[in-house]
Design brief:
9% helix, 2 helices, single chain
Length: 173
């Protein structure tokens, strides 16, 4: 029997979240698909963030992040958030994405968010076991929902996204 990586069989459609962080007034945004609620009381979300990324660095420094979903119509903008940039540059400038202040933190959320969770974390809530990613648990301080936005974005692997009962390929960045 041939050894295969468990995630190489895909595509497994997963909900796309965008994590926003801030460090020294630079807002960072990163799409993630490895995310799950993991407790009702207290309310907790677990995300997996690539080691060495601006997002992981910011979370380790500030101990906060905003987790949010976005609509399918923004699939190209979300795809572009994965573009590698210089440390002091925000991904939001690529597509002129705007942010909104949050209730309890200095980290803003995207104004295109369908729903969002303001999360605080701590060193005890960051797992360093994996070779490629940190597993970070964030306690939800506040959440919200934008009733004007709908049709959440799903990821199918590579550059494939779906929503509105169709699958589209994002343009390379």
């Amino acid at each position: 029997m041939e050894d295969k990586h468990i995630f190489s069989e895909g595509p497994f459609p997963t909900l796309v979240y965008v994590v926003t962080t801030i460090y020294k007034d630079v807002v960072n945004a990163c799409p993630v698909t490895w995310c799950n609620p993991c407790s009702y009381d207290p309310p907790l979300f677990m995300i997996s963030i690539k080691k060495g990324s601006d997002t992981s660095f910011n979370i380790l420094q500030t101990h906060e992040f905003v987790l949010q979903t976005v609509s399918f119509k923004h699939f190209q903008e979300v795809h572009n958030l994965a573009m590698p940039l210089e440390r002091d540059m925000s991904e939001l400038v690529i597509d002129d994405l705007r942010t909104v202040d949050t209730l309890f933190m200095g980290t803003p959320r995207l104004d295109i968010a369908i729903n969002w969770y303001e999360c605080k974390t701590g060193l005890r809530m960051i797992n360093n076991y994996g070779k490629t990613h940190f597993q970070i648990i964030g306690e939800v301080l506040s959440s919200g929902y934008n009733y004007q936005q709908q049709d959440p974005l799903l990821y199918h692997g590579q550059r494939s996204y779906s929503g509105s009962c169709k699958i589209l390929e994002a343009e390379p960045y």
